[in-house]
Write a structure and sequence with these properties.
Radius of gyration: 28 Å
Oligomer: single chain
Number of helices: 30
Bound molecules: tryptophan, zinc ion
Helix content: 40-55%
Number of strands: 33
Shape: globular
Largest sheet: 9 strands, mixed
């Protein structure tokens, strides 16, 4: 795993799965917690698995000091092999045997944040995927489920709060100022769900009674100064409990459910049974320090981890290739949760558009690059590299398609059958799909299950090409749909997918034409199919893939007039937004592919008027307007091009934005004034939409001010920055000044830093905003190097490292891809520097150059060189090694 730096890298293959040779029934862990040297006593009861041939017991371990091994209380012989503890000649017999292992580890030296580590004086654990082996020797695999009893002992003054999974059964004093707490988890679990926390924390508490009448204690633990930022997380947790019971009949199965926040965390959050551990970013919020986006993210991450209690914990994964079994399903569930919490249908559509935007800007590129893998991968070197947007977001789309194919009620029935069949088991993606199909025997899913499951086995984003033909004499419109999918690493040829194609037709006036409901829910399963629509009077405008009914690229040669009609009239809000995106994307791509200097006005009058009409529309809501008026991202534009010149893409998008800023100047003024007051702060979608649109208007007005030499709007923006009652308005104003490059930006940034110097999450925003700011003559890279020298910068804190380095390398293509290759040199230095202490974070950064093969010269050669120089290092982690090796491989 991560820390192995010598010897051959081993590839783990799905086809090699074998059940464990032993079962672990019970585990009794005793921790003597000390940052420098923690002692761990592990008493297990094991049994041979009679299903498999007799063989030695091989226990996983990593970075442990082994002091003692006892079998049934007596010393025994053992050996070490490849980091594993190997025990032979174990007692035979049905009753099994006791194994006692005593080890020590060094939490304060644990910089990779896997296993037991210390963050700001508090102990935390992170065991998924393979971190438990850094705590004790174990069968560290998800199909070995045991009952845990955990005793924590520590200094009482420094570690007054001692938490682990399940129920607190005993606590008391020990000598020398120490105390203990004993926890028993009533549920069996795999080792990756183990957790402990010990430190000086305070908790917001709430008692709730569930639908079924059971009482539960909910707790959100934070550092003592952060209590005033826990209300939203608690409300989100309560809403999650209520929702899972109401929508899927899944109750909370614990007396006590705890969330604990830490500022040192590799990912977002972790669903440890009854003791979720969260990155502070996804817990702490109040109106003064968190934006609307933060509030929304907290709601969905709290939901996500809570929903894992069923989809992940009660039913878990047989092996890590099945990761999407829990992650795809749980992302789907958290998306549905956030949508169901929206009061307005339009807010549901906004959420769907945001989710699709993530899929298309992050997952589609992954699917087209060197790290492309199926939702259920076939092999890996380092499992941490497969916590990807493909496993999570595309996996969620696969679950969503199942719901589309069996209907909402059918899906709820399917999920009930899944939990009824597999409660307490470690299962596969096949088991999941089978349960959904079996509960809906007459569905399109059941009829085509083997073919549908290609979504799990074939990587790559399918394309659907649609061609319409109108026959006026026959009054018939035919639509031919053809699917294809390009090769991905290891998969030269693809079989057709099952693609739900929600669709409709609009007439010349933009009205919905009534069609056969079965055609409106067409399922494309052949390589090519033709649909006929009868009694059509004039050539209709097809609205295809409504609601983004499948994770595919849709090609249809829309005329501008057709796109304008869809943008003005489509009843499907997703496609209405999509039409606007296609319209602006088309013009951007034309300007990018033009030769000569960048056209300063890439948009034509018709497109501008259409966007103005959306902005000024009297019934569309503000959040939706903001999405339509947001131009496709540079990353999304790059994906549409065979050869990518990041500088030119950046220049064209900036030109378009300036053009919109200027052409719609009076409309931006109107938009700002009409929405500027969103009342007392509440993070609901409607008022958040108003803030988003005013933020956008200010951004545009500051951009327009540059050519107009207008001091008024930047001045107003600075005033709003100073007077804001909430972080969303304040940060949007700050960002408008920074993005437009106005002189007031410096003053505002300094003021912001002074105001929030004690709020780590706000300081992260301060760093990120500067590292992601538009480049002017190469100014961003020197600024980024300067930011890294700032006293508040801490490379070892993942949030802080991400706020500067990832914001620059991943979120600022126009500044990162430099003709002098200095951005790539910076990237290489940081990947190697971080890899020495945190391979997981380093490997994520390493992926910033995944798409190097698409780059134009001189970027392409320079990027290749940078990757090759990383790959040439002899002491890389497996994590980074796997990423750079794949980046350099030829398909
Ligand atoms: N299971 C977690 C989630 O998606 C993911 C996670 C949190 C994780 N921390 C991790 C995965 C560390 C790997 C390593 O909810
Ligand atoms: Zn998850």
């Amino acid at each position: 795993m991560s820390s192995l730096r010598e010897g051959p890298t081993t590839v783990v293959r799905r086809e090699d799965y074998a059940p464990p040779a032993y079962w672990i029934d019970t585990v009794e862990l005793t921790f003597d917690l000390d940052p420098a040297k923690t002692r761990v006593l592990n008493k297990m009861h094991l049994r041979r698995n009679a299903q498999v041939p007799a063989q030695p017991l091989r226990l996983d371990g990593e970075d442990l000091n082994l002091a003692r091994v006892l079998v049934n209380g007596a010393g025994c012989s053992f050996k070490m092999d490849d980091g594993q503890l190997v025990l032979d000649n174990l007692p035979e017999g049905e009753q099994g045997f006791d194994l006692e292992i005593f080890t020590t580890c060094m939490p304060e030296k644990n910089s990779q944040l896997m296993g037991l580590y210390v963050s700001q004086g508090t102990f935390f654990t992170q065991c998924e995927a393979e971190g438990f082996r850094r705590i004790t020797y174990f069968l560290d695999r998800p199909d070995v489920m045991a009952s845990y009893t955990v005793t924590l002992r520590a200094d009482k003054a420094r570690y007054p709060v001692l938490l682990s999974n399940g129920n607190l059964v005993e606590q008391g004093e020990l000598d020398a100022g120490r105390h203990f707490a004993k926890w028993v988890d009533p549920h069996k679990k795999p080792s990756y769900l183990f957790a402990l926390v010990a430190g000086n924390l305070v908790a917001r508490e709430q008692r709730i009674v569930s639908r079924s009448g059971n009482e539960h204690l909910l707790q959100v633990y934070v550092r003592p100064g952060d209590m005033d930022k826990t209300e939203h997380a608690m409300n989100s947790l309560i809403a999650s409990v209520v929702w899972d019971e109401a929508r899927f009949g899944l109750p909370l199965d614990l007396e006590r459910f705890m969330i604990v926040a830490t500022s040192d965390f590799n990912m977002g959050a972790m669903e440890n049974k009854g003791l979720n551990i969260f990155n502070t970013k996804y817990v702490l919020a109040n109106s003064a320090t968190a934006t609307d986006t933060d509030f929304a993210n907290i709601e969905s991450v709290v939901g996500h981890e809570y929903f894992h209690n069923w989809s992940g914990n009660r039913v878990t994964c047989r092996d890590w290739f099945q990761l999407s079994l829990k992650e795809g399903l749980t992302v789907f569930r958290d998306q549905e949760f956030s949508m169901d919490l929206c009061a307005e249908p339009s807010a549901r559509a906004v959420k769907r558009i945001e989710d699709v935007r993530v899929l298309r800007t992050a997952q589609f590129p992954e699917d087209a690059g060197p790290m492309a893998h199926p939702v259920r991968p076939d092999s890996y070197v380092e499992i941490n590299n497969f916590y990807t947007v493909t496993v999570y977001e595309k996996g969620a789309e696969v679950v969503r398609m199942m719901q589309t194919l069996v209907g909402r009620d059918g899906f709820a029935k399917g999920l009930a059958l899944y939990f009824q069949r597999h409660d307490g088991q470690a299962v596969t993606c096949d088991d999941f799909a089978q349960a959904i199909a079996d509960a809906n025997p007459d569905s399109e899913l059941a009829r085509r299950l083997p073919q549908f499951k290609r979504w799990y086995s074939q990587a790559g984003t399918p394309r659907v090409r649609a061609e319409g033909h109108f026959d006026a004499a026959q009054r018939r419109y035919t639509l031919t749909l053809t699917q294809s999918c390009v090769p991905t690493p290891g998969q030269p040829a693809k079989q057709p997918f099952v693609i739900p194609m929600a669709l409709g037709l609009l007439d010349a006036q933009g009205r919905e034409i009534a069609i056969d409901p079965a055609q409106a829910r067409h399922v494309l399963a052949e390589a090519s199919e033709t649909l006929s629509f009868e009694n059509i009077d004039a050539e209709p405008v097809p609205s295809l893939l409504r609601g983004f009914s499948a994770p595919v690229v849709l090609d249809f040669d829309y005329t501008d007039a057709q796109l304008l009609s869809l943008l003005a009239h489509d009843t499907d809000p997703f496609n209405r937004w999509e039409a606007g995106q296609r319209l602006t994307l088309r013009r951007a791509l034309a300007a990018i592919q033009d030769s000569g200097p960048v056209n300063p006005a890439p948009l034509d009058a018709a497109a501008i008027e259409a966007l103005r009409a959306v902005l000024r529309h009297d019934t569309l809501d503000a959040a939706f307007k903001e999405l339509v008026l947001t131009l496709p991202s540079e990353t999304y534009m790059a994906e549409q091009l065979p050869v990518v010149d990041p500088q030119r893409i950046h220049a064209v998008r900036e030109a378009m934005r300036s053009q919109l800023a200027e052409a719609l100047h009076d409309d931006w003024v109107w938009a700002f004034e009409a929405h500027a007051d969103s009342g007392a702060y509440r993070p609901d979608p409607v008022s958040a939409g108003r803030r988003a649109l005013t933020g956008m208007a200010l951004g545009m007005l500051c951009i327009a001010a540059r050519t107009r030499h207008d001091p008024v709007w930047p001045g107003k923006t600075y005033q709003r920055f100073k007077d804001a009652h909430n972080m969303t308005d304040r940060f949007n104003a700050l960002s408008a000044l920074v993005v437009s490059g106005h002189a007031l930006a410096r003053e505002a940034l300094d003021r912001f830093h002074t105001l929030f110097q004690h709020e780590a999450l706000v300081i992260d925003k301060w760093f990120a905003l500067q590292a992601a700011a538009p480049d002017h003559g190469g100014n961003v890279l020197p600024l980024v190097r300067q930011l890294m020298a700032h006293p508040d910068f801490q490379l070892r804190n993942p949030n802080r490292a991400r706020s500067v380095i990832f914001s620059y390398c991943n979120a600022n293509p126009g500044a990162f891809h430099r003709a002098d290759a200095a951005g790539y040199v910076f990237w290489r230095e940081r990947v190697l520097e971080i890899d020495r202490f945190n391979p997981q974070v380093a490997a994520r950064l390493a992926r910033a150059l995944d798409r190097w093969k698409k780059l134009a010269e001189p970027y392409r050669s320079a990027a290749r060189e940078a990757i090759a120089r990383v790959a040439a290092q002899t002491d890389l982690s497996n994590d980074v090694r796997e990423v750079v090796t794949r980046a350099l491989a030829d398909e």
